[in-house]
Amino acid sequence: MAMTFDSTNPARPAEIVASMPIHTATDVETAVRFATAAQRSWAKLPVPARGEVIATIGEVLTRRKAELANLVSREAGKILVEAGGDVQEAIDMAHFVAGQARNAWGTVHPCEMPEKFGFTTRHPVGVVGMITPWNFPVAIPSWKIFPALLAGNGVVIKPSEFAPMCCEQFVAACIEAGAPEGLINVVHGFGDVGAALTVHPGVRAISFTGSVATGRRVASAAMEVGPKLVSLELGGKNAMIVMDDADLDLVVDGVIFGAFGTSGQRCTSTSRLVAHRAIIDELIQRVTSRAAQLMVGDPLVATTDVGPVITSASVARIHDMVQTAVSEGNELLLGGSPIAATGCDGGSFYAPTILSGAHRNSFITRNEVFGPVLAVLEVDSFDEAIETANDCEYGLSSSIYTRDVNHAMRALHDLDTGIVYINAPTIGAEIHLPFGGNKFTGNGYREAGSRGLEQFSETKSVYIDYSGRLQKAQIDNRDSIA
Ligand code: NAD
Q: What is the CATH number of domain 238-422?
């Protein structure tokens, strides 16, 4: 009899959402074997036929959206509108990726010699191992699984232990829509299951999303037994710059949404507010008074703005970080403590929190909190604002509020992040643009958009010589000796 673990509702931990098996290395072995066998015939299907299956998955997800959103809310603690957004991203991704099935699959190049022709084409890598976090428990698996399937791969996915049923149900929807038996496999459990998947010799590529600490472990383990293709989508410490000419009404809406949406638990959450000295006092006063009005509570209640954080351990970690910030001299303007919510016994809630007086080297400025905590930093000029925003190990998302087109253009060029917003907060990515970050946020890959297929396919360069004679390329041609 397999051992099990429970996923619980972060708003009401006494409610067990699902009881899941704790898989073993032997189960990982079986899953990889299934994926390997199914992948052989899947890869023989024409790419547009694979796309049709993915389009049908989009239809099944649309039909099951309300039910899945309810599950996301209960298992990951997202307020209902955000839980629906999580599922909607997967639906949009299905239709986007299905459309790519009829798009160009390579490039054509002129050759150095006459009667010779060069082009590239894509091929599957085989079986892809995927390891995912809990905070977008349907969207992130979809970002990985759909392009991997379109490229002709088999899949073994290890979702987070905090939201396993969301992934299980998402994969069930893929199978209901016609994904062949054995092509997509889910293994459950903790880090050791992810580690077994990472080093399995039958897994050619690992696609990981999660924290920097785990990403480092995954990448080094994969290289130890590899090399393998490893793509890493890691944490963020995202800054919003507010210049002295910004529209402050717009800024206040943006900060509240960016910092406290999803209880600050998006990799792109706004966690540093870099404000010009001329407007900082008014901005702090307005943001603090709006944040104080946020309704924190049961994510299934329609009037709730901010739901729980994922676990009581997260509450303790966030609180430790806030206390460290206060002990370093940052001023606590709002929140700064765990709170109770009506009808949510034992729920893991943390009050929306604002700290001012942070500087570039403050603990709270440099470390990802992954909770509803905003640190405010004061700057004197545009150049100082850009330097401050960039003075960070992470490089996922950034934003600037200004009405000066020159500052906006310089910022989009100079901000060292994979995503830049002008006059919008650091959250809100759309699935048809590449998603990912610089510096410690990743290792150069991008998910979604036109680049989403890259981590799941190998490029082959093909030369066809129809001259009927041996033609030597420039490097082998004696005539090229000077
Ligand atoms: P995490 O790193 O704790 O866990 C992620 C996954 O890794 C889980 O499935 C976990 O079981 C697994 N894991 C743990 N140890 C492992 C090991 N040794 N080998 C293999 N797998 C292992 O992250 P989390 O708390 O679930 O998610 C939050 C983090 O994810 C934040 O840092 C956030 O910024 C980041 N994130 C990044 C993106 C992005 O696209 N850049 C998106 C969402 C979340």
A: 3.40.309.10
Beta strands 270-276 and 238-242 are: parallel
Q: Which of 10, 171, 151, 20 is nearest to 90 (CA)?
A: 171
User: Cα dist. 236→48, 116, 263, 398 in Å?
Assistant: 36, 47, 15, 10
Q: Are 155 and 127 in contact (CB under 8 A)?
A: yes
158 lines ligand 1 (CB under 6 A): yes
Identify any residues that bridge with 25 across adjacent strands, giving them in sequence order.
Answer: none
For 442-452, write each residue's pLDDT tens digit. 999 999 998 99
Q: Is the pLDDT of residue 1 over 90?
A: no
Q: Does domain 4-234+442-463 have CATH number 3.40.605.10?
A: yes
pLDDT of residue 473: 81
Atom of ligand 1 at shortest distance to CA of 134?
26
Which residues belong to CATH 3.40.309.10 in the chain?
238-422
Please give the structure tokens belonging to residue 157: 């996915």
Reading the block at residue 73, the tokens are 């809310």
pTM more than 0.90: yes
Name the catalytic one among 75, 233, 447, 454. 233
Q: From the CA of 198, give the closest atom in ligand 1.
A: 20
Q: What is the pLDDT of residues 99-129, one digit of tens each?
A: 999 999 999 999 999 999 999 999 999 999 9
Q: How far is CA 20 from CA 7, 17, 137, 182, 186, in A?
A: 8, 10, 15, 19, 11
Q: Residue 480's pLDDT is what?
A: 60
Question: The tokens of 145 are what?
Answer: 């699984």
DSSP 146-191: HHHHHTT-EEEEE--TTSHHHHHHHHHHHHHTTPPTTTEEE--SSH
User: Which H helix or E strand runs over 15?
Assistant: strand 12-21
Closest CA to 23 of 208, 156, 173, 133: 156
How crowded is residue 327: how many other Cβ atoms within 10 Å of its Cβ? Answer: 9
Q: Is 370 in the pocket of ligand 1 (CB under 6 A)?
A: yes
